[in-house]
Amino acid sequence: MKSESEKLIKKHHELIHTDNLKVISHVQREEDDWFINTLMFENIDVPFKYKRKQLYKSLINNRVNVTYYVSKEEVAGFEIEIMNIVRIKVS
Q1: Helix, strand or coil for residue 10?
Q2: What is the rounded CA–CA span in Å between residue 13 and residue 54?
Q3: Which of 36-41's residues contact partners 24+ apart within 8 Å by CB, and which partners?
Q4: Which is nearest to 72 in space by CA: 52, 46, 50, 51?
Q5: What three-state secondary structure class fits 76?
């Protein structure tokens, strides 16, 4: 039986899946009716983002499996690369 992440990747070829990433930073901020979560992982210099309807427990020092896609966002006039998380699960 295929995992949920394998099914997503098969259906959407632009998705990437990575297992066992260690969270070193987790910031949550409210934007409209959503909480925007930004994660930084050990040895990775790109922010990962996802939205939730409610606050979530801190993921700092946890290991997670993520399915995501590459995107770009403009911050202070500069275009930066970010990763948009589609699915996240604590390992």
Answers
A1: helix
A2: 29
A3: 39/64, 39/85
A4: 46
A5: coil
List, in sequence order, every residue forming a beta bridge with 69; answer none if it has no partner: 84
Residue 80 near residue 49, CB atoms below 8 Å:
no
User: Which tens digit of pLDDT belongs to each residue from 9-42?
Assistant: 677 778 898 999 999 999 999 999 999 999 999 9
Tokens found for residue 53: 């309807």
Q: For the whole model, what pTM was predicted?
A: 0.84
Q: Give the integer Cα–Cα distance in Å for 40 and 45.
A: 7
For 2, which DSSP code? -
Sequence-distant (≥ 6) Cβ neighbours of residue 54 within 8 angstroms: 35
d(CA 91, CA 64): 5
Query: Strands 48-52 and 16-31: what pairing?
Result: unpaired
Contact 9, 19 (CB under 8 A): no
Residue found under tokens 């500069």: 78
